[in-house]
Hints:
The chain has about 675 residues and is α/β, with parallel strands linked by helices.
Amino acid sequence: xxxxxxxxxxxxxxxxxxxEEREGKAVGVTPSREHPVSxxxxxxxxxxxxxxxxxxxxxRSPMMRDHxxxxxxTWGEALDHVSTKLLEIKKEFGSESLGFLSxxxxxxxxxxxxxxxxxxxxxxxxxxxxxxxxxxxxxAGLAASFGSGxxxxxxxxxxxxxxxxxxxxxxxxxxxxIATRIIQAVVNKKAKLIVADPRDxxxxxxATVWLRHKVGSDVALLNGLMHVILKEGWEDRAFxxxxxxxxxxxxxxxxxxSPERVAEITGVDPESLRKxxxxxxxxxxxxxxxxxxxxxxxxGTDNVKSCANLAMLTGHxxxxxxGVNPLRGQNNVQGACDMGGLPNVYxxxxxxxxxxxxxKFEEAWGVTDLNDKPGLTLTDMIAKAEKGELxxxxxxxxxxxxxxxxxxxxxxxxxxxxxxxxxxxxxSETAGFAHVILPAVTFAEKDGTFTxxxxxxxxxRQALAPLDGAMPDWRIISEISSRAGYPMNYKSSAEILxxxxxxxxxxxxxTLERLKNTWGxxxxxxxxxxxxxxxxxxxxxxxxxxxxxxxxxxxxxxVPDEEYPFVLTTGRVAFQYHTRTMxxxxxxxxxxxxxxxxxxxxxxxxxxxxxxxxxVAVESRRGQQRLPVLLTxxxxxxxxxxxxxxxxANINELTTSAADPVAKIPELKSCxxxxxxx
Length: 678
Ligand code: SF4
C-alpha cells in the first residue's frame, strides 16, 4: 500500500490527508497530524473522500449527442468537434456569444488554463464560476472596503481569539474543522461567542449570546450593533482616525438604527443587541466569521460592507486573531477567483479593462488583441442563453441545474444553447443536457495546487494513474485550445504553475519547490524570499485607508403574503457536498443524509395539520417541489429550510433569480412559499 499527501476535495477548510492506494485503487485516508488545519483530524466527508474515486459510474469515454442520442466517441473526434464548433459559433455570432464556466473544484492550474483559453483562443471575457453564487459579494464588498476581497486572517489564529461574531455561517455543517477551532477556543480558552442566525444552528449551543434575527435583516442588525457601540463610546477612535475614511457618513447613517427600531426590523430584543455589541467591541481580539447567510442575498454586498464597517469601527483589523473572515464553500473557490475565473479580471484581480494589464497579458501569452470589455457573469450568461443571445457554453466541473437559483429557468436556457460542453467526472444533471461530454479525472489522479479559504495555496500530489478513458482537465483544455489555433504545449501542471508565478503578483513566490517543502503558502507572497501572509492589512489597507460605506437596510425581494405565507431559506448539511455528484456515491455519507427534506417549526406544522415525515407540496412563484417534512424548532415559526444538494428534489426550482445589483449574486437565502398538505 502507498500513501500520498493530497488536499481534501470538499470544503474550503483545505485539510490535507494521505490517500491510501492499493492495487491502483484509492482505499482509505489518514489525516495529516502536522497540517495546520487538519492537525490529525478530519470531518466525516474527509474520512470518506476516497469513496467516489473508483466508483463504477465514473465517465470513461467522451460522448457526443447525435440526433438526440448520446454515443461514445474517441477523444480525437470529441476534441476536434468541440474546437471546430466553438470557432464556428465565434465566427458567426462573435466571441460574446461564447461562455465558459470554470470550477471551484479543480486546481488553480486548470482554472488558469480555462480562462486563458477563453481569453486568448476565443477572445471572450465571458468567464465565471459558482463563486458568483456564494461569495461574489465578498469579492465586491471587501475590495471596496479594504482593497482585497479575501479572508483577512488565518484558521490557526482562531485559537487565540477572545471573541467570535459568527453571522450567517452554519459552521459545524459547512466548515467542520473551523467550527472545531471555534468550539475549542470557547470551551478551553473561555472565548466569547456571538452567533447571529435565524436558525438554531448547532454553534448556538456554545454562544454567549445568540441573535435570532429575521432572514434578510442583516444590515439592520449590523447597523444596530454599530449604533450601540458609538452610543456607548466603545469604538476605537485612534484606529478610525489613522486608518479609515468616510467615518462621518457611517456615523450619521447608523444613528437612525436605535435598538428599538432594529428590534422591529430584526426581531432581536434590544438587551441582546447591547450585550452582543459590548462583547464584540470590548474584546481585545475579536474575529468576524461569515459565510453564505451573509452573501447570498440581493443585499449581499451591503451585508459584507456592513461587516467590514463593524470591524473597522472597533479596530479589530490588521492584527492576528481579528479581521473579517468569509468562509469559502468549496476547496478551490478562492483559487478559481484568484486565477481570473471571473468576467472582469485576470489573475490576482488585474482588471481586463486596464490597458497596462491588457498589454502585460498580450506579451505574456503572445497574442495581440485581447478583449478589454468585461464579460458576462454566470447569472447574466444564463439570462442571455434564455434569450438566444449566448450560443455556446463550456462547463468545467460545475452543475448549474442544481446549484443555480430558479432551476426551470436554467434548464430552459441550457435547452436554447446551440452547443453545450460539459467536462466532469460523473454524469451530472447538467451533463444530461450537453452536446459533448468530456470525462475528467478526480483530485487523486493529478498534481496541482488548491487555495483554501485562508488564502493558503497547497500542493496536492497525484496518487493514482488517471482512469482509463479520462484525462486531467488541464490536458483537455490544452488540446482544445491547440486545435482552435492557440497552441498550449504544457507537459505538466508544474509548467502552468511556473507561468502563474510570472503573471500573478500575489502568487509570485508560491513556487512548486517551496510548496513541496511547506504546508502551503498564504498569499500575498510576491517573491521567493517572502514568507507568505497569515493576516492582511497590517499597518495599511491594501487600498490605503479602509473605507466606511454605510448601507441602509432594504427588505428581501419577496416577503411573505397571503398567497405565499412562508419564508424558504436554503443551505447545506454536513454529510453532503454541493450538488452531491461526489458524496451521493459514498455510501456512509448517503446513509446519514440520503434524501431532501423540509425543516418546519412544530407550531406551523400543527396549524397545517402536518406530521413529521409527511409529504408536502412547497410552491413558490417559480415552481413546486414535493418534500418530506422534518419537524424541528431549529427553524423559527414562519420559516422553512431545505438543503440544495438534492437534484432529484431540487429546492432551487423554487428560489428566485433576483440578484444583488453589484455582485450579481442571487437571493438564495430567502423567497416566499406556500405549503400544502398532500
Ligand atoms: Fe475536507 Fe472540509 Fe472536512 Fe476538512 S473540514 S476534511 S476540508 S470536508
